[in-house]
Design goal:
With 426 residues, the chain is α/β, with parallel strands linked by helices. It folds into 2 domains: 3-82, no CATH class; 104-338, Alpha-Beta Barrel (TIM Barrel), CATH 3.20.20.70. The chain is built from 15 helices and 12 strands. It has helices at residues 2-9, 12-17, 23-30, 36-48, 55-58, 70-75, 142-154, 173-184, 198-201, 208-216, 234-245, 264-276, 300-310, 390-399, 414-425; strands at 104-108, 111-115, 160-164, 191-195, 220-224, 250-255, 279-285, 321-326, 331-334, 340-344, 347-351, 357-361. The radius of gyration is 27 Å and the shape is globular. The structure holds pyridoxal-5'-phosphate (PLP).
Length: 426
């Protein structure tokens, strides 16, 4: 019987069906008992911003100390969400204005966001698309998806498609397979990326069958969203390992959140856990100016301080890039501590992570000339096609001792063709 229960627990569809959407239910399951006044405020908050938590994610909360628990804070409503500052916006990144067609946000020249799901298994309280949470818990219909795929097919500049949402893994395996297959059949789509929080909030969604489907459509990259080291569990490790074993490069996007991970020690522990699980920390986001997030926001200086504590102090590939997503839709802007102290002709003065100051002597004779975009006469190698390795086999042949050939002559060598024709004439 016990084994049976565990099978049910590992069934992702069971978690969706049993997502916790009411305070009463959450109290019964966790044993937390909110004071009546507090419960009333949570209820009011949920009328504007609904709650939904997977039983799995709920189970990670340390109940004794729930008020400072990072999982609790990401999943449970807080009355401060109803405070709306005058500088906050419902769509701070202007995603709706940059949407040429339903389901697509086209902001950057060569890549698009393709929103294939309007829903998530867990509603993050810090969601940047909070305006849409719980709006219509639906999957766009196939004709809407097809129209978006047609848009991508018609726009030859799109070489990178990011499946986003909501959470793309809310869709059935069959639909995911169909979308990936349709995108893969578009010649100019080089890379497909998936942004999903399932490894964090419902790791059982990462099934053998799902991974088998993803693997069919390579190159597929995946970014997930761990915010705190305590979100790493044996189940989430198992999910990440299934994905990594399928050859899917994994990245992580963290949101810098006050009271959750705005601490160099927590952040460093998080990135170390991620790389141990073959996940490359990709971004730390400054919290967006979405409505009702003021209690989550830190000053940018806190983020820079965290970056300062990581750059140089730990493996380069464990350090994510810290970005501010520009309000109004300008895209992500990287922010970092300054490492250039001064600059004179021929000399850059730099400081390292320890505070050591050094001068880098620049070259005396660098000339790049003036680029007039006259590529025909450029001295650089502008042929960017893959190199041909067939010559390598030939070189191996000459090197080998069993061969007596003294030279190798490529096919269609005009000198040899001349010799052949001379032979014919004689
Ligand atoms: C973040 C984002 C992307 C992807 O940006 P990368 O820096 O390439 O990861 C693409 N489109 C939109 C609208 C985005 O917000």
């Amino acid at each position: 019987m016990k084994g049976n229960n565990f099978d049910v627990w590992k069934d992702w569809k069971w978690h969706l069906k049993n997502s916790v959407k009411s305070i009463k239910q959450a109290e019964v399951l966790t044993g937390i008992k909110f004071p009546p006044e507090h419960r009333k405020r949570l209820q009011e908050t949920m009328e504007k911003f609904p709650m939904s938590v997977t039983p799995y994610y709920l189970s990670l909360i340390k109940v004794e100390d729930y008020e400072s628990d990072p999982i609790y804070k990401q999943a449970f409503p807080d009355a401060r969400e109803l405070i709306i500052e005058d500088f906050e916006m419902s769509d701070p990144l202007s995603e709706d204005s940059d949407s040429p067609i339903h389901c697509i946000t086209h902001r950057y020249p060569d890549r698009v966001l393709f929103h294939i799901s309007n829903t998530c298994s867990m509603y993050c309280r810090h969601c940047t698309r909070k305006r849409k949470v719980g709006d219509q818990d639906s999957i766009p219909c196939k004709s809407e998806l097809q129209a978006a795929i047609d848009y991508i097919a018609e726009h030859h500049e799109v070489r990178d498609v990011l499946l986003s949402g909501g959470d793309p893994f809310m869709l059935s395996d069959e639909l995911i397979d169909w979308i990936l297959g349709s995108l893969r059949s578009i010649e100019h789509v080089e890379v497909i990326r998936i942004g999903t929080r399932m490894p964090v909030v419902l790791p059982y969604r990462i099934t053998d069958n799902l991974v088998k489907i993803l693997k069919k459509h390579h190159p597929v990259w995946l970014n997930t969203h761990f915010n705190h080291p305590r979100e790493v569990t044996s189940s989430s490790k198992q999910a990440l390992s299934l994905l990594a074993d399928a050859g899917i490069p994994l990245g992580n996007q963290t949101v810098l959140l006050s009271g959750i991970n705005d601490c160099p020690i927590i952040m460093k522990s998080l990135v170390h856990k991620l790389v141990m699980n073959r996940v490359r920390p990709y971004y730390i986001y400054q919290c967006d100016l979405s409505e009702g997030l003021s209690h989550f926001r830190t000053p940018v200086s806190r983020g820079i301080e965290i970056m300062e504590s990581m750059i140089g102090h730990t493996s380069g590939f464990a350090v994510p890039r810290y970005v501010v997503d520009a309000p109004g839709g300008g895209g992500k802007i990287p922010v970092m501590p300054n490492y250039i102290v001064s600059w004179a002709p021929k000399k850059v003065v730099l400081r390292n992570y320890e505070g050591v100051i050094t001068a880098y002597r620049e070259p005396d004779n660098y000339s790049f000339g003036k680029c007039e975009l006259e590529c025909d006469t450029c001295h650089l190698q502008l042929d960017t096609s893959d190199s041909d390795e067939s010559k390598a086999v030939g070189i191996m042949k000459i090197i080998s001792e069993y061969e007596d050939d003294i030279s190798l002559i490529p096919e269609n060598n005009s000198r040899m063709e001349r010799r052949d024709s001379d032979d014919d004439e004689s």
